[in-house]
Amino acid sequence: MTSYRALTLAPDPGQMLLSPQRSSASASDPAMSLLTDLSSGAVVVVQPDDRADQVLQMLMRAGVRMGFVGEVREGRGTIRGVVTAGDLAGEHVTRRALDLGVAHDELSVEQVMSPLSDWPLVELRSLPRAAVGDVIATLQASGQRYLIVIETVDGQPVLRGVFSASRIEQSLGTSLQISLRSQSFAELHSALQHS
Q: Hey, what's the torsion of the CAs at 24, 28, 30, 31, to 10 degrees?
């Protein structure tokens, strides 16, 4: 049997400083430095039939702007889509309710989510030599504000992490200038009306 020993405890300093958050980065920094690693952190996963308005509140309480739509049973699950705070608020959700002929508060998250096929995915194994600038170029090329990172385990894709344009912008102190791509003709029409 392996024996373990207690770690040496530090003396009480009376007060201490908070660890400063990394507030600046450069495009040449390692991409992994800005990856939100979901293998060790909390992930918001909602059921497809959850109400859209309730999911928006859940995302706000969790302090995130993105959640995954899927089903979790006995600690294992599958992801079918992605939903962002932008999908759940404002004109998009109102237009979707009108299109479907349902009341705003009756919309399910499945009715407003984007399927995984709409989102750029990158393999974790491609990241060790990648720079933040490579992630920025990928986000700009895809026209999305999130880049989903997967890892292949036993031949199956597994959600591993996310790059967020907002987090990168905060770290760089500048806007990424991403031209968002419309997912449908209706979204393109709406984008043209508001530009």
A: 80
**Strand 156-164 relative to strand 114-115, pairing:** unpaired
**The pTM is what?**
0.75
For the segment 26-40, the average pLDDT, to the nearest whole number, is 90
Q: Is 193 a residue whose pLDDT tops 50?
A: no
Return the residue matching tokens 């992490």: 161
By the 8 A CB rule, do 62 and 98 touch? no
**pLDDT per residue as tens digits for the range 72-128:** 777 678 899 999 988 888 788 888 889 999 988 899 999 999 998 888 999 999 999
Sorted by sequence, the CB contacts under 8 Å of residue 80 that are 6+ apart come out as: 48, 69, 70, 71, 110, 113, 115, 116
Q: Is 96:53 a contact under the CB 8 Å cutoff?
A: no
- Identify the pLDDT of residue 108: 93
The pair of structure tokens assigned to 127 is: 């990241």
Length of the chain: 195
Integer Cα distance of 145 and 62 in angstroms: 19
In contact, 70 and 77? CB cutoff 8 Å: yes
